[in-house]
Automatic annotation (TrEMBL), chain A:
The keyword ATP-binding applies. GO terms for molecular function: ATP binding. InterPro entries: AAA+_ATPase (IPR003593), ABC_transporter-like_ATP-bd (IPR003439), ABC_transporter-like_CS (IPR017871), ABC_transporter_ATP-binding (IPR050763), P-loop_NTPase (IPR027417). SUPFAM superfamilies: P-loop containing nucleoside triphosphate hydrolases (SSF52540). It comes from Microbulbifer halophilus. Pfam families: ABC_tran. This is ATP-binding cassette domain-containing protein.
From TrEMBL, chain B:
Keywords: Aminopeptidase, Cytoplasm, Hydrolase, Protease, Signal. It comes from Microbulbifer halophilus. It catalyses: Release of N-terminal proline from a peptide. It comes from the Bacteria. Its EC number is 3.4.11.5. This is Proline iminopeptidase. Gene3D superfamilies: alpha/beta hydrolase. Belongs to the peptidase S33 family.
Length: 251, 489, 396
């Protein structure tokens, strides 16, 4: 469960988030939609604890991210930008080190590594340094790193950007499996078809606020559109609508 | 974590030992910082305790004075010990030699040991500080008094004791084999050390060698030969040649030297007539002394020529060149060793043969002979030298008036590994001249290899004084005489 | 600072291992460190050797105009270092422009004036803009001085005067320096260069691990691990310092290894650096390496971009040398023990002493090193705070 409770955030006098609040339930895949500059990245960074909110708070599994960041992070996996690999480390080294940083050791460590290798089909890449990896390969490694410690909460920032078909399929499969295991999943995206296909719930952000939420079907219905893209445009740039899928505080 | 801490502890210990080590790492005794005149860098000075032989007086509470110029970079090469002449000269007086031995000193310590009765090891001067009395009788009287006061000490001094002391110093300083440089009488000490402690010795450098069986106090023939060589070189120089038969002038001057001349001979320091009359034997010895140094010898022809014409100033000025040399000889030590080890072996016939037809005559011998009569120490003969195969470098000046090159050539056959450098026109002691210091350094580093001696030929006599203006800078040095001057002669 | 109580050795070890792997696998940074570390010892050794060789072996050439008027003069001027060519005639300027370093011209009636005690003139033509001239002039003065002394001596003797009358006293110079201390002048720049090596060797790594990681967006991932921020800074500091330290150790080793090849003995300098001294030097530099690393990381984190960080740090690496030189030039007495508590200055003083074999005070070294380490700790804390600043994460 990710609880975002009326957070405010300003940069250099400019208000980026305005009393933003929502809850992400366990065992669901939630998409965060928003135009560029809507405050998605800031929102995600506050949720992960990288940034501190000016007001309000974020709870991950009931733990305050700002007050007890280390405990919150143990239950958190983040797939940020896929550039965040270390080119001079092999996949095995990379994953081992991050698993250790998460506190894994011994048999548990080996099991976790074997598991992500299998799940994300990293066998061939395992002993290679990550320099020169394709976008898909990078995503797989990033995802493996985010999952190696089996976190309850998984946050992904535009995970499908630049992925080929196979990689995108693997990602989808993984997310669906994780959902089945009860993981709380939040991802941001631009790709409407993917959002429509993957997500159970959609949050639409505009101007630092949630302007719409609900299942993709609900959103289309509420906005009277026959596709998600139109309903997103309507929500982000036009009139607001309300849904009961997620309890939020619309404008 | 434990491992890291242990590692840190290890580093701390290491740091501690590194910081502490400069203070403790000294296997040899440290010595005191000191200086000697003629050498600007600091030396290490030691006092090496010497035990007194039973039944001998002459206290030695302070021990032997030992001065060491440490090697700039001590690579473990054997040190070089400098042995002074005399026998009354102190090794500490040799400090100026360090300037010439800089190259040697880079890798070797240079050690100077003042032998008992010399320099800083209780100089036995008998009251002769600077000026020697010109009167032989008074000289003998003063010596006799001195002897009576410290007869046991006088008797105790000998080459054997000096060699034993050197060996003691070598062990005290923790040196393994050592190399020796001996100059003049110091070569005698070095050769005896080689006889008695061959296992302690690596190589010998002997400048102006006085072989073990040589009679160096019979110096009249050698001085005469040095003067003849000077004459030959003068004749070969067109400007000097114009001074004519100055050697004949010298003989006439000495033969006819009168009381009047002795009394009016000017003092080179004050310009006034000398306080002590300059007697014939003093004058002859002054000429002999001038032959020690080629620079002084180059002024002899003109000085003698002028004296024969009644102008004694140049000759007086020449004696002024040696004024400071007298103070380094400890007379008590000189006579103890010279009388017991050399003078007693000289017979009257030998003296007559040596002095016949020489400008010096017995003027030099008489000084020692009369001194030894006042200094009745017992004879201390050495055995005949046994063969030794240490590498030996011999250096001679062809015009040395006391240890001529024939000594090195004829009396050292028992040393198969010897090399001989002869400096043409060179006087007594040539170690500082030209390329000789470099050759010494090379010899010490590779004593078994023959040296390339060609550079020795480049050492020249200083230019002759030909007139009151000094050397003939404008003359045709080494060339044929100018035509008009030959015509006018 | 986030709670020290959460410190986990295992997690820290993993982080440190990651930083070390990253650092030591960076070939470019490693090469830069190694090359610079070897560069200056080689340069010092080379220039010293060259200087001594030139000084000792180089002969200078003198053109003697009018030599036929004083053949003996010509002969006495010759030496191993001064080559004399007697020329009938020639134009001094042209000769100086040609092969000759100095030109000596004898006056018209040199020989006559000399004989008549009239002090004839010698004209020395020099080109003071040429480097060889000074040496040639020295060589000539040396020979001429000796000859003059000889002539004066003979003239005095000819008048019955002992030449010592011209020397009313004799000045004996006693040098209190030690043969190893004489190396201090030559080796004075070495501590500064060792410290500079620290800066240069760790430069690329520190930029890469901070500004570089931020630009590659991997810093964010790192900060999302359940570890306090100070550990991130500390691990990076250790990794960067390891590179800088290696550089300076390499430089020390090269310096000491090259010393026997340097003609120090010819300069009368004793090589006094001991093995223990070398080890001590290495250990002394460790706290400084940490300090340099953490300061570089902080600066790089503050900068706008990778490029900006490189520029800033390049300027920073001039700072120590400038400071140390300024202190040296202003002749500030650095003997006071308090100076040894100042980072850079303290290390410089200790290195200087150890290089010439002088002892250093253990309590002061420990105190000074502790002062440096305290600064490191403060800088790490500062860095941990900086990691929480939003501007650090770059464009939003």
């Amino acid at each position: 469960m990710i609880e975002v409770q009326s957070i405010d955030k300003s940069f250099a006098g400019q208000r980026v988030l305005r009393e933003l609040g929502f809850e992400i339930p366990d065992g669901r895949i939630t998409a965060l939609l928003g135009a560029n500059g809507a405050g998605k990245t800031t929102c995600l960074r506050i949720v992960t604890g990288l940034l501190r909110a000016d007001a309000g708070r974020v709870l991950l599994g009931g733990r305050d991210v700002a007050a007890d960041p280390l405990a919150a992070r143990r239950q958190l996996g983040v797939v940020g930008d896929r550039e965040g690999l270390y080119e001079r480390l092999t996949v095995e080294e990379y994953l081992t080190l991050f698993a250790r940083m998460q506190g894994l050791a011994g048999a548990a460590l080996r099991q976790s590594l074997d598991a992500v290798r299998e799940e994300l089909e990293l066998g061939e890449l395992w002993k290679r340094r990550t320099r020169g990896f394709s976008q898909g390969e990078r995503m797989k490694v990033s995802l493996a790193r985010a999952l190696v410690h089996r976190p309850q909460h998984l946050i992904l920032d535009e995970p499908t950007r630049g992925l080929d078909v196979l990689a995108a399929r693997l990602l989808r499969r993984t997310l669906l499996r994780l959902r089945a295991e009860g993981t709380t999943i939040l991802f941001s995206s631009h790709v409407m078809s993917e959002v429509a296909e993957l997500s159970d719930c959609v949050l639409v952000m505009a101007d630092g606020r949630i302007v719409g939420n609900g299942s993709p079907a609900e959103l289309m219905e509420n906005t009277g559109s026959d596709n998600l893209e139109d309903s997103f445009v309507a929500l982000a740039y036009g009139s607001a609508a309300r849904s009961e899928c997620i309890e939020g505080t619309p404008a | 974590m434990v491992r890291i801490r242990r590692l840190l502890w290890g580093l701390a210990l290491c740091l501690g030992s590194a910081l502490a080590s400069p203070a403790i790492a000294q296997q040899a005794p440290a010595g005191e910082r000191c200086y000697l005149d003629g050498w600007g860098d600091a030396l290490r000075c030691y006092r090496v305790p010497v035990s007194q032989s039973v039944g001998q007086s002459g206290h030695f509470p302070d021990g032997l004075a030992v001065m060491v110029a440490p090697a700039v970079n001590d690579g473990g090469r054997e040190p070089l010990y400098l042995l002074a002449g005399g026998p009354g000269q102190a090794a500490s007086e040799l400090a100026p030699l360090l300037n010439a031995f800089r190259k040697v000193n880079r890798e070797r310590a240079i050690v100077m040991v003042d032998r008992r009765g010399a320099g800083r090891s209780g100089a036995f001067r008998c009251g002769f500080e600077r000026d020697m009395p010109a009167d032989l009788e008074q000289f003998s009287r003063q010596l006799a008094d001195c002897y009576l006061q410290r007869a046991d000490f006088a008797e105790s001094l000998s080459s054997r004791q000096t060699v034993a002391d050197l060996e003691r110093v070598r062990r005290y300083l923790g040196h393994g084999r050592i190399a020796l440089w001996g100059g003049s009488w110091g070569t005698r000490t070095a050769l005896l050390y080689q006889q008695w402690h061959p296992q302690s010795l690596s190589a010998l450098v002997l400048d102006a060698v006085a072989p073990i069986d040589s009679k160096v106090f019979l110096a009249a023939s050698a001085a005469e030969e040095a003067l003849r060589e000077l004459e030959r070189d003068c004749v070969a120089d067109p400007e000097c040649a114009r001074l004519g038969d100055w050697k004949g002038d010298l003989n006439r001057l000495l033969q006819g030297w009168s009381e009047q001349q002795a009394r009016t001979f000017p003092d080179p320091l004050t310009g006034a007539p000398a306080a002590e009359p300059v007697k014939r034997w003093v004058l002859a010895n002054a000429v002999r002394a001038a032959l020690y140094d080629p620079g002084a010898a180059a002024q002899l022809p003109y000085a003698v020529r002028q004296a024969s014409r009644g102008n004694y100033l140049p000759l007086s000025g020449l004696t002024g060149l040696f004024i400071n040399n007298a103070d380094s000889m400890a007379m008590g030590l000189t006579f103890s060793v010279a009388c017991a080890e050399s003078l007693n072996r000289i017979s009257a016939e030998e003296v007559a043969r040596d002095s016949a037809d020489t400008f010096l005559g017995t003027a030099f011998f008489d000084l020692f002979h009369s001194g030894c009569e006042a200094w009745p120490v017992s004879a201390k003969p050495y055995g005949a030298p046994e063969p030794r195969d240490h590498p030996v470098l011999l250096i001679s000046g062809s015009a040395d008036p006391i240890t001529p090159p024939v000594y090195a050539e004829r009396r050292l056959d028992y040393l198969p590994n010897r090399q001989h450098l002869i400096v043409a026109g060179g006087g007594h002691i040539n170690s500082r001249r030209g390329c000789i210091p470099g050759l010494i350094a090379r010899f010490l580093n590779t004593p078994a290899e023959p040296l390339d001696k060609t550079c020795v030929a480049g050492i020249e006599r200083p230019p002759f004084m030909v007139d009151a203006y000094g050397p003939a800078l404008g003359g045709k040095a080494g060339a044929e005489p100018a035509a008009e001057e030959v015509a006018s002669d | 600072m986030m709670g020290l109580g959460n410190f986990s050795t295992r997690r820290m070890a993993a982080l440190l291992r990651k930083e070390m792997l990253e650092t030591w696998r960076d070939r470019r940074a490693l090469w830069m460190a190694v090359c610079f570390s070897l560069l200056f010892p080689v340069m010092i050794a080379g220039s010293t050797t060259f200087f001594v060789k030139k000084h000792a072996e180089e002969t200078t050439r003198l053109a003697l105009l009018g030599a036929e008027r004083a053949p003996l003069l010509e002969q006495r001027l010759r030496s191993d270092t001064l080559k004399v060519d007697a020329l009938e005639q020639g134009e001094p300027r042209a000769l100086l422009a040609g092969d000759y370093d100095v030109v000596l011209q004898l006056g018209e009636d040199f020989a006559g004036d000399y004989r008549n005690f009239r002090t004839p003139q010698l004209y020395l033509y020099v080109d003071s803009s040429s480097t060889a001239t000074g040496r040639a002039e020295r060589h000539l003065q040396e020979r001429l001085g000796k000859l003059q002394q000889l002539v004066v001596g003979q003239r005095l003797v000819a008048r019955g005067v002992a030449p010592q009358l011209l020397a009313p006293w004799k000045l004996e110079v006693r040098d209190v320096s030690t043969p190893s201390g004489r190396g201090a002048m030559l080796l004075a720049m070495v501590p500064g260069l060792l410290i500079l090596t620290l800066f240069v060797a760790s430069l690329a790594t520190s930029v890469d691990t901070s500004a570089g990681e931020r630009e590659r967006l991997s810093l964010e991932t790192l900060l999302l691990q359940p570890m306090p921020a100070w550990q991130v800074i500390a691990a990076k500091t250790l990794a960067v310092a390891s590179m800088g330290w290696l550089g300076s150790l390499l430089a020390i080793a090269a310096m000491v290894a090259l010393m026997p090849a340097m003609p120090l003995a010819e300069l009368g300098i004793q090589q006094a650096t001991t093995t223990a001294g070398v080890i001590t030097m290495g250990l002394l530099l460790l706290p400084l390496a940490l300090l340099v690393a953490v300061v570089q990381i902080l600066l790089a984190l503050r900068s706008q971009s990778f490029k900006d960080a490189q520029t800033q740090l390049s300027i920073l690496q001039l700072a120590p040398v400038t400071v140390l030189m300024a202190l040296d030039m202003s002749r500030v007495e650095l003997d006071h023990p308090l100076w040894q508590l100042v980072p850079l200055v303290g290390q410089q003083q200790w290195l200087k002493s150890l290089l010439v074999g002088d002892p250093v005070s253990l309590p002061l070294v420990l105190a000074g090193s502790a002062a440096s380490l305290l600064l490191v700790a403060m800088a790490v804390a500062l860095g941990a705070r900086a990691l929480r600043r939003e501007s650090l994460l770059g464009a939003l």
